[in-house]
């Protein structure tokens, strides 16, 4: 009989999830490991050697840990679910002139749902992952909070998790620094694991060439969108581009032309295949609307509230006031914020606690 109950650990084969499995095993949990096959290179059409969480090497590394510690390990194939939702959404968003965040969608709609389904089948009370985040509870609400290691904090990509998911999730790494986890791995004799390189690419775009991925996924895309106009803020045509899906808000490099001074993508119009370029100051916005909300710390925002809002993963966050209007959130920033891209996630923080988040619908100036 285990001391703390049975836990299903999502194991990618990397250092973080492997150390989570070892930690929980040593603490007296009855651990069951599970590795999810979410995609493969054959379906994505990538040319790079297979690496990362879905490679055979990573699956074998996860299994080796399970064999060493003597707990069961399963591999589940969720490629069809992943492709139908995450990859299709990725393509649709770029074709709509927006910039998607597939990691958020994958966590919210694929990975946790798949984990909970298997946890129930295996009579596991909990699921655990190697994310750097904390879980808190106040009264009857569960919510994410920032990890101790702010350089590795992943709270931004976890805003979409439901109360049911959160109530059964463990984040053992939330109170550790990454360097401590690496040292722990070395102390336990897992030097190769500690020295294993980590990938920060989108898993199904392994060469980081999202343009090439879109071309492979949308037959004839180049011919459909080629030859659109670059325009300036006034609407004057200043050049020709390769097609609106191949650009993102805030982009400066890779425009394919020289303009004599630094210019940035400030607007994308898929209806006219037009990409607007401007100065860095033209990226400034002080308001936005956010939809597809999921609230964690509070069931709803009943009155305007001062928060810190992050508009992308590496964004430090900006002071703002939010007010909920039915199924949307109005966000007014105290200062200018640059590069707000429709399709990306907006996450609202109360100090280190995640109030909730949503998808950016549009940005504007008051």
Properties at a glance:
alpha/beta, 27% helix, SH3 type barrels, six-stranded antiparallel beta barrel, 10 helices, globular, 366 residues, five-stranded parallel sheet, 30% strand, Rossmann fold
Write a compact overview of the structure shown.
With 366 residues, the chain is α/β, with parallel strands linked by helices.
Describe the fold and architecture.
This protein has 366 residues and is of the alpha/beta class. Among the domains are: 6-130 and 172-194, Rossmann fold, CATH 3.40.50.620; 219-278, SH3 type barrels (Roll), CATH 2.30.30.280. Helix content is 27%, strand content 30%. It has a six-stranded antiparallel barrel with strand order 12-15-14-13-16-17. It is globular and about 70 Å long.
Q: Strand fraction band?
A: 25-35%
Main sheet overview:
6 strands, antiparallel, barrel
Number of helices: 10
Shape label: globular
Gross CATH architecture of the domain at 6-130 and 172-194: 3-Layer(aba) Sandwich
- Mean pLDDT equals 91
Query: What would you call the structural class?
Result: alpha/beta
What's the total number of strands?
A: 17
- Strand order across the biggest sheet? 12-15-14-13-16-17
- End-to-end Cα distance, whole Å, is 61 Å
The CATH superfamily title of the domain at 6-130 and 172-194: HUPs
- CATH topology of the domain at 6-130 and 172-194, by name, is Rossmann fold
CATH top-level class of the domain at 6-130 and 172-194: Alpha Beta
Helical fraction: 25-40%
Low-confidence stretches: 47-51
* H/E topology pattern: EHEHHEHHEEEHEHHHHEEEEEEEEEE
Instruction: Return Rg in Å.
Output: 22 Å
